[in-house]
Amino acid sequence: MQLQTNSLKQKNIKKVQVTYNASLDAIISSTTSNTNTVVLAWREKSRKHLKMTSFNVAEGIHAFDYHSQLNLIATAGINNKVCLWNPYVVSKPVGVLWGHSASVIAVQFFAARKQLFSFSKDKVLRLWDIQHQLSIQRIACSFPKSQDLRCLFHFDEAHGRLFISFNNQLALLAMKSEASTRVKSHKTAVTCVLYNSVLKQVISSDVGSTVSFWRIDTGQKIKQFTGCHGNAEISTMALDANETRLLTGSTDGTIKVWDFSGYCHHTLNVGREGAVDISQILVLKKTILVTGWERAITVFRLQNFNHFFIQPEKWKGGIEHRGDILCAAFLPPQTLVTGSYDGEIVLWNNSTEKAHYVLHPDYQRLLKSKSDTEPQKLLGAGRSRSPRPGPNQAALGAHSLETHTEGNDAVVGLHFLEARKTTAKTGGANLVSCGGSGYVRFWDTRKKQLLAEFLAHGGVGSIIMSTDKSNQYLATGDLDGRLKIWDIEEYCLNSSKSKITQAPTLIRSFRPHEDQISSLEMCKLGGHLLIISSSADCSICVTDVCGASVWIFGQAKHWQTENWFSLPKRDTNLMKSDIQEESIREIPLLSKKESWLDLPEHSLLDKKNKDDTTFNVRPSEVINLGIKYKERNIFRKKTHNLYNGKVMQKSPASPKTYCYEGTFRSLSIGALKELPEVKKPAFLLDPETYFREKPEEECSQIPELPLLSETLKAVFDEKNLFPKEILDRERRAKQLCQETSSEVKIKRNKKQL
């Protein structure tokens, strides 16, 4: 061992880890060399010297861990790979885990579940399923960002806590208890959800590289594509302008263009044969923009889509961000904005692909040519701000310090408010951003001004958001699975010198998921606005803006959307007390045995379906979705009063009224005072006149005339008869018919008389 140490010093190779394993009764050491990367040494009884065996890993490793039950050694590779080794097979690894886009610096087994933690230099934590060799969870943007760091990694399996140190900071991640009865839409964590308005279908993707298609009106799965990107997870998706093509972005560094039959038309080589973290795909008329893992925009021009494999082209604007670009948004005809990890929002001209301005919560700066000013000096001058907080900043309180820490200003989502047509003249916000600090910010990109910011979710880190096409509502979701819906129809419609810190009206606050909300989508169906959310808890939920029950795609019984909206919408001008109560109390999901009277005041009353085979089913297994017994009884009394004449209620805070209408709400039912005299109808007084049977008419017995064929036959076949005799026979037959008919008429007249 002494000789090996001396040779390592001469080659300037670091020995990163040495440990003794009792189950193997061996010493395991690792280095950053590509030869003898992992060395196992043990002593045999008959020998004095140690016996050694080694593995060779390309570019070396940073760390390793051993699982005694599986008899596997996991290595954290400098080449972004996590390899699994059998200690007795040194020729090649028994498994390779792909997915990290930077060097892996720490690995540790979760022995009880046969899973593996891995952590990379780009602050991405992954949890792997060893048996299937798949990434089942990914956590990013939750750690402090610094270039040079010393990291220590430890998982306390007994208490389910993971400790990660970053130089002088310590991060603690606690595991949550799992609910085994939870309805799951996918087998693995759902990463993205889209709505196709043409087909009225919901499209979802997961970390297992599966794409599923669902009916929005029943929640029924239509079809699914498996193995779209092999074993790599699908991180994001997008639809083209006509909603006839689906684009899926994966951590393997590729984007694939599909039709809805499952045929792949193009493969876009985003990562240039390397793994990257694609966060968003923006499809424009002439280009496809991709962001997520570097400071520059990756662009594909549609005019070059002549081949199956397509390479990216150079973005003319170059690099203007200091951090990785996480998201982008486009406002016709040519305004493009991109948000980065350090909180900057850069405004671009999409036609010329040149940047002209930078927005930040703490500063704004005009971009100049690189020859005039150095980027570092310009950035330093732009970041200078007054040491004392202004009157608007004072309202933030103690949380203001948190928003300025590194990573908390990361811009995760950007949305243009395209429905606001009058903002060009009157001013007002036309851009919304959200990110790592739990804040939502409203910007005026024309005047380059931050108009408002408010804390939407406190103490949960990064959040995501979505808006409807009419820009009336804003939905936000956090890492705890909580979803909030805000009324922004009249929020920041006019520009002002002072920044607004008051939040808009909160309509709903509930928790439809048990884990991080990964994607949000808002769509209209039947004139009603629906919110579709996906989560790392493997479920996809849908609900209404105004308080309908939460439904899960893939549940046992299918729903019918026409039964959701049996009552008119609730007035959005809620009392402050209602909003506070709503934010604390969860939306209850009831079982079949519970009555609809148990629904909270902000829920729509369900209408019973005549078809017993398809009816409303509320997944009662969702945790933390109950209300107190006292509150339920109070609501029973209120609902009872509603259906006994007290239908209309007025909100004290608004002159508007809202009501719950029933089918028979306007009918008055009571006992009759006296029984009116009923006259018998004429058909009862004289039944013979109306029900007398008519006499049967005697049928006249008219002899049948001979057929024409027989007559002709008699003319030509009967030689003994002359034509004169034949005519006499016919004359006598007609006379007999007339006499018979006259006799019948005489008998009929006599009978009537």
UniProtKB/TrEMBL annotation:
<protein>
    <submittedName>
        <fullName>WD repeat-containing protein 49 isoform X8</fullName>
    </submittedName>
</protein>
<keyword id="KW-0853">WD repeat</keyword>
<dbReference type="InterPro" id="IPR036322">
    <property type="entry name" value="WD40_repeat_dom_sf"/>
</dbReference>
<feature type="repeat" description="WD">
    <location>
        <begin position="97"/>
        <end position="138"/>
    </location>
</feature>
<dbReference type="Pfam" id="PF00400">
    <property type="entry name" value="WD40"/>
</dbReference>
<dbReference type="InterPro" id="IPR015943">
    <property type="entry name" value="WD40/YVTN_repeat-like_dom_sf"/>
</dbReference>
<feature type="repeat" description="WD">
    <location>
        <begin position="234"/>
        <end position="261"/>
    </location>
</feature>
<feature type="repeat" description="WD">
    <location>
        <begin position="465"/>
        <end position="489"/>
    </location>
</feature>
<feature type="region of interest" description="Disordered">
    <location>
        <begin position="376"/>
        <end position="396"/>
    </location>
</feature>
<feature type="repeat" description="WD">
    <location>
        <begin position="183"/>
        <end position="224"/>
    </location>
</feature>
<feature type="repeat" description="WD">
    <location>
        <begin position="318"/>
        <end position="358"/>
    </location>
</feature>
<dbReference type="InterPro" id="IPR001680">
    <property type="entry name" value="WD40_rpt"/>
</dbReference>
<dbReference type="InterPro" id="IPR020472">
    <property type="entry name" value="WD40_PAC1"/>
</dbReference>
<dbReference type="InterPro" id="IPR051242">
    <property type="entry name" value="WD-EF-hand_domain"/>
</dbReference>
<keyword id="KW-0677">Repeat</keyword>
<dbReference type="InterPro" id="IPR019775">
    <property type="entry name" value="WD40_repeat_CS"/>
</dbReference>
